[in-house]
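Same chain as my last thread, 226 residues:
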Amino acid sequence: MSQATETSPVIQEQNKEAWFSPKNRKLISDPLTDNNPITIQILGLCSALAVTTQVKPAIIMAIGVTIVTAFSNLIIAIIRNTIPTRIRMIVQLVIVAALVALVDQVLRAVVYDVSKQLSVFVGLIITNCIVMGRLEAFAMGNKPWPSFLDGIGNGLGYGAILVILAVLRELFGSGTLIGYQIVPQAVYDMGYVNNGVMVTPASAMFLIAIIIWIQRSRNPKLVDIS
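reply #2:
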């Protein structure tokens, strides 16, 4: 009996979940495909429409949201058992606001021109449904490491759609990518004209709808047949 008791901590140690176990890896991969925050959860659409006319701001926005989502998830998961239920939303907003302020100051210091382009949308990360949704749906009920991975996964899933939209909109709307001219002048001389619709928010909505259609046609389990 004593020997079994002595070996039990070793058994428990062996049964501890690996940092990058299949379950934890799924927290990162799922938001990129089957549970994307934009195309499946239909969250974060406002910024997806507004900041994707060019690739560079879209990438910066994606990085900012990923950082805020990951670290707010981590912090909330660490202190979740000490947060009174009645004020949990206030605590979450304070933590997210502090992280957003930090990201905003870093952007102003490092990429000021992009920071001006993003304008108020950096500040609006505070109320981004993806950030607050992951805090409520995951971080409040899970351990710090899985919560951190969940934040990274959802940030990357959000960012992937932003970059796809930005590539299409900048290329066909302006003929450039990351500010560099892609469409040769000779093509314009032959009568090619940039598609002005691609720089409007309406084009982003149509593109998101097309991505949703492609995603569901390739993966029937995402289709709601209820």
